[in-house]
Amino acid sequence: MKNLLSIEQLTRAEMDDIFRVAALQKQNRGKHTEFPLRGQSWGLIFSKPSTRTRVSFEVGVRELGGETIFLNPNDIQLGRGELIKDTARVLGRMIHGAIIRTFAQADIEEFADFSGLPTINALTDDEHPCQILADIFTFQEKRENIEGKIVTFVGDAASNTARSWMFAAGKMNFELRLAAPAKYQPSAEWLKRAGGNVVCNPNLQEAARGADVLYTDIWVSMGKEGEEARREAELGPYWINRDLVKLAKPEALVMHCLPAHRGQEIDDATLEAHAQTIFDQSENRLHVQKAVLLAVVGS
Ligand code: CP
Ligand code: NVA
């Protein structure tokens, strides 16, 4: 596996391999004697803010023996209009891998093509593969294989995290229920691409009933700030609170990719009651992404 550009392009076997290596990385953190990224410099090119993704990748690359260079697009010529394909060809001759957070999925694909570097999607408007890999890893660590389970996604079901969940449902054979108003459901094209196991249900209570996971993400994704008032009004009822949790299985996990906006997609009491799971999801970004780094360098 040369790149991690999306869950859509991953195979089930690659996903299972990432989970297996992530578990070993977690278990052996700080005790490694081999450093597969030694002598390597990895560029992080982030056009959107980040706490978890940035820090987990910077720490992960270092723990595997490499160095990172954080490249804010506004500090490099990319921000002044240098083409992605030219930037990619320059960096391809200097660094050893790229971790990119940006808007258009096509931009990271172009970067990967022109740089020839192992390239990792650290979030685009289309997908957030590292997050959903860490989320599934977290579920399987706490429960059992996710196959056959029910994951209910509450909120903006046309978001990047929802899309990565959709592709994962098709590959890992669990039921994904998207609880969102029609306007925030994925298009028919995305549903077709996902390949099955996805049920769109605007009835939140019905979608939550019997779920193994209640999952949510912010209502206003990065880049959608201008739609804040409208989204708050339209997504208003689609939040996770204690009443909704009662409809899910008694052992259901409540998950959130973070950052959280308490009082919008989740209430404070529910987030705090499930903080162990939610912050384990954050921690697992580190272990899972170390496994992704190892996969893309072929170690
Ligand atoms: N969940 C997530 O990707 O968080 P950051 O935006 O802080 O990286
Ligand atoms: N859907 C969110 C995820 C943040 C980690 C966004 O794109 O802003």
Q: Architecture of the largest domain, CATH level 2?
A: 3-Layer(aba) Sandwich
CATH superfamily descriptor of the largest domain: Aspartate/ornithine carbamoyltransferase
Model regions low in confidence, pLDDT < 50 over at least 5 residues: none
Largest sheet, order of strands side by side?
7-6-5-8-9
Bound molecules: phosphoric acid mono(formamide)ester, norvaline
Cα-based radius of gyration, to the nearest Å = 19 Å
Look at the structure and give the CATH class of the largest domain.
Answer: Alpha Beta
Brief rundown of the structure:
It contains twelve helices and nine strands.
Structure description:
The protein is of the alpha/beta class and 299 residues long. The protein folds into two domains: 12-127 and 284-297, Rossmann fold (3-Layer(aba) Sandwich), CATH 3.40.50.1370; 131-281, Rossmann fold, CATH 3.40.50.1370. The chain has helices at 12-27, 52-63, 84-92, 105-115, 129-142, 160-172, 188-194, 204-208, 228-235, 242-247, 268-273, 275-297; strands spanning 41-46, 67-71, 97-101, 119-121, 150-154, 175-179, 198-200, 213-216, 253-256. Helix 4 links the parallel strand 3 (97-101) and strand 4 (119-121). Helix 1 crosses helix 12, helix 2 packs across helix 12 (275-297) and helix 6 (160-172) packs parallel to helix 7 (188-194). The protein is globular. Residues 50-53, 123, 131, 257-258 line the site of phosphoric acid mono(formamide)ester.
